[in-house]
Write a structure and sequence with these properties.
Length: 370
């Protein structure tokens, strides 16, 4: 999911001092426009050396540093601007953006609060604050900020998009889809909008709709490799195992460390009767992430289905050690124990599965444990 923070891209052009420093300041801006940010910083340094209280030189230097990803340097310069001019709106906005990039989300919110106090009609400030609130999981408050951004600027596509993300985090997928629809209506060429709408459709069990959106992502941006995993998952849910396998192959090719893709490909291969290939994928997922409970669970299920009940129990043990709240691990371990004539151990596991919410486990207890 993409995060889009706006930094106010306004350079200051004010020739107001000696000819030489006027030249340095203008040259700094010209170099900035040519994307020679280091050269621009060098020129702004010269201006500041002579005029250490010229806030616009600090502002432009801070902006150059931001674009070079020197966020701490940018914060230092924007702070100096604020020291020299306490109500400099753009400096608060851009210092907030710099703090956001350093994951100081609460610090960014403080700066956006001040910017909103100075100018309560700046849609991008509300937007930026909403993004920061999303990062600290204050989703309802983030939605309020995105509402404000949209009220000020009704065609603000990214505000609809990020409000949709907030709603998705809250599990309100249908309302999120409406926001993604609005974002797409405003800007139909942003692949990220379709990607998130596809995910929301997936979570509402609209797998065909999800596949269509993921297809659109690939059409707009063929280099967006992350979409293949999600389309593969949607195709798998539609029992299109051949199509899912193709997508998971592409997802793994683009990111060989994606343990989720190996698990999903393993499940797909299992459904295509390729148990050996499935086992290899589960093994790889465990190599990548030795604490991945689902990998042990699925490998245990595969071992059990092939009659290796002892091996299955070992994998279920590990899955339970990592995630002791997953009832199906206990349920399936009970089945493996039962097949090894360990009725007592099986009944204990079915009982635990029942405590965790498995109604099927109580049926097994009624049938085999009385």
């Amino acid at each position: 999911m993409k995060n889009l923070i706006f930094i106010l891209s306004v350079l200051i052009f004010i020739p107001c001092f000696s000819q030489e420093n006027d030249k340095n300041f203008i040259n700094g801006n010209l170099k900035f426009n040519r994307e020679d940010y280091l050269g621009a910083i060098s020129d702004f340094n010269k201006v500041i050396l002579v005029y250490p209280k010229f806030e616009d030189a600090y502002y432009n230097r801070g902006y150059s540093k931001y674009l070079l990803m020197d966020y701490s340097g940018a914060i230092e310069d924007f702070s100096k601007v604020i020291e020299l001019r306490p109500n400099y709106l753009d400096a608060y906005i851009n210092r907030g953006a710099s703090k956001y990039m350093m994951r100081d989300y609460k610090g960014a919110i403080i700066d956006y609060n001040k910017a909103i106090e100075i100018n309560p009609l700046n849609a991008r400030t509300f937007f930026n604050r909403g993004c920061a609130k999303n990062e600290i999981e204050e989703y309802n408050s983030a939605i309020s900020d995105f509402n404000s951004a949209i009220n000020i600027s009704p065609k603000f596509a990214n505000a609809f998009y990020h409000r949709g993300i907030s709603k998705s985090y809250l599990g309100d997928y249908f309302s999120a889809i409406t926001d993604y629809n609005n974002a797409i209506e405003i800007n139909p060429e942003d692949d990220g909008f379709y990607l998130m709408r596809g995910k929301a459709k997936f979570y509402t069990d609209d797998y065909y709709g999800a596949v269509n959106d993921f297809d659109r992502v690939i059409y707009i941006n063929p280099s967006n490799s992350s979409v293949y995993y999600f389309r593969g998952y949607a195709r798998y849910s539609l029992n299109n195992y051949v199509g899912a396998l193709s997508d998971f192959n592409k997802a793994i090719l683009s990111n060989p460390q994606n343990e989720d893709a190996y698990i999903r490909r393993g499940l797909t291969k299992y459904n295509l009767n390729d148990n050996k290939g499935a086992m290899q994928d589960y093994n790889t997922a465990i190599e990548i992430n030795p604490n991945y409970s689902s990998a042990y669970y699925n490998r245990g299920f595969l071992k059990s289905s092939s009659g290796d009940y002892l091996g299955a129990i070992l994998d279920y043990n590990k899955a339970i050690e990592i995630n002791p709240k997953y009832p199906v691990s206990y349920y399936n371990r009970a089945a493996a124990k039962f097949n090894l004539k360990d009725k007592y151990g099986a009944c204990l596991d079915w009982s635990k599965a029942g405590e965790l919410g498995s109604f099927e486990a109580y049926e097994m207890i009624r049938k085999y444990c009385n």
